[in-house]
Structure formats: C-alpha cells, structure tokens
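Hey, I was hoping to borrow your eyes for a little while. No rush at all, and the record is pasted right below:
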Amino acid sequence: MGGSVSCCISPGESPKIHRRREVELDECPITTAEDVSEDTGTYLQHISDRELPDELAQESNPSDHPRASTLFLNKSQTDVREKRKSNYLNHMSPGLLTKKYSSCSTIFLDDSTVSQPNLKSTIKCVTLAIYYHIKNRDSNRSVDIFDEQKHPLSRDKVPDDYSVVDPEHKLIYRFIRTLFSSAQLTAECAIVTLVYLERLLTYAEMDICPCNWKRIVLGAILLASKVWDDQAVWNVDYCQILKEMTVEDMNEMERHFLELLQFNINVPGSVYAKYYFDLRSLADDNNLSFPLEPLSNKRAQKLEAISRLCEDKYKDLCKSTMKRSVSVDNMAGIKNSHAVLS
C-alpha cells in the first residue's frame, strides 16, 4: 500500500515469524493428547478451546460480527433520550413539518440503498457517528502515533486546549468532506471507514478524542480507500491534499494502524449492511433525513421489471428444488423396493 515512494510496512519492522525446526518424523513420533501427561510434558491447547465464546466475542468485537450492536449507535442513545425527553416536555415535534410522507397520489423514495448509498447523506451520518464517539467517550486512552501534538497535520501551532475541547460536528464534517471530495471516494468507502475506526478502538482498547480524531479518521479513510476502491489513492496523493504532511509520516501512521488492527481488514457483507442500516437509524434519531424524490413512472416501471425478474428466478428455483426432492424420493422408493424383493 502507498505510492511509488511509500511503503506501509518495512521488512525490518514487520512482526517476526518464529520458524520451527524441521525434524525428521523418525526422530519425533506423533503423539496424541492422551499420551501427554502433566508430569512428562505440556499440553498444547487446541485452537477451538482458546477461542472466545460467541456471545463474548460479539460484545468485544462488534465490527467483526453482524449481530452485535455498533458502538456509535450505543454512544448516541444518551443524547437521543435527552432530546426526546426535552421535546416531550416542551411539546415539540421537530422534523414533522418538513418531513415528506407518501400518500395515495404520491410515493416518495430516496436514492440511497445498501449497495449504492447516497454520498452526501452517508458522510453526514458517519460524521455524526464520530461526533458521538468523541462526545460520549469513556476516557482519553490514545496512542502516540495518532496524537496531533506529536505528529501535527500542518505547520500551524496546535492550540493549548487541543486535547480538552471537543470538536463540533461541522468541523468533523468539513474535514471528512474535503478528503472524500479531493480523493473522489465513494459512499461505500465512508461506511468501511467507520468499520475500521470502531475496529481500531476495540482492538487497541483506545478512545477517539480531541487530540487524535483527525489522524485516526485519516488513517481509516486511507486504509478503506485502498481496500474498497478499485482505483486506490496512494499515500503521496493524500499528501497533495494535506500539503504540509510528509509521506514518511503517512506511511508510519498506516503501518501502526494495520498493526493495531492485527491486519484484519476483512469486512463481511453482513457487517457492512449492519453499519449501513444503523447509520440510517442514527439519521432518523437525529432528524437527518435522506433526500426524497417522488416516484416517477419511469422508475416505477423499472422497479416493476426488477420485481418480475426476481419473481421468475424464485419460481425457477422452487421448480428445481421440487424436481430434486422428487428424484430423491424416487431413488429412495427404488432402494426400498429392491430391499423388499431381496
């Protein structure tokens, strides 16, 4: 990963691989667990015994499991409950007058789907998720490589209160929007960015806070753009966006990010879909609506054609399944008849 003059991992700094000595089979006979006693040797635990229980693993690694609740949605619940309580006491219903509802004559649809999310709305939702992460953080645990005081993104002096004052939602949005607009990244990349960010916080047991949020977000975007997009942006290209940041610093940050992720950059489709729908739930809780458009005749015909195609495929699948079941029953009947005759 990286540009022609960059490298995210150097051979000298990569994790060491302990090689086992090759031993002749005659010199080292194969033994089982029963053959090894407490007095004669150490029992090597099987990998399945060392794995965490499924429920515990889901709670600790929500970015790896589709059924675990996302961290950002949990972080936002405190503010959402306070907003609902305030609206109830003040008899207010924000968003109801501006929200569009479908009727008998008009049906409103948004252009955002799980396979093709709306770019602007998705970036706003991801920004809101990061904002709640910073605002409702548990502590200020961090790693030096992400500290903006030790590794500044620009030559401007970092304010003295940089580690105390929480950034506003608009500031986070402008930072992410600039990177996505300049690098021409997709909405799907924004969702993967959030997955990597929460995976980093979980694996490294750290918090995203005022002193490190910019570099953590930058590292997540950098990695997500390389993994997700076919035409990845190189590290040197990001240095053209952040003109005062060096390629060496970018490489070092990317290397640490990968190591803290334990090089787990896989994002299953189920996890991606979970983050997409949780982002939509976050948008609804904060009256952040996706752009709606009236259903036109052309789009209605297209949706109807897609529906018919899916229905035909479902019928063909049912027919093939029935044929297989009938053939299996016939084979079972033939075997039974042969058994009776014999």
About this structure: The first helix runs from residue 47 to 50.
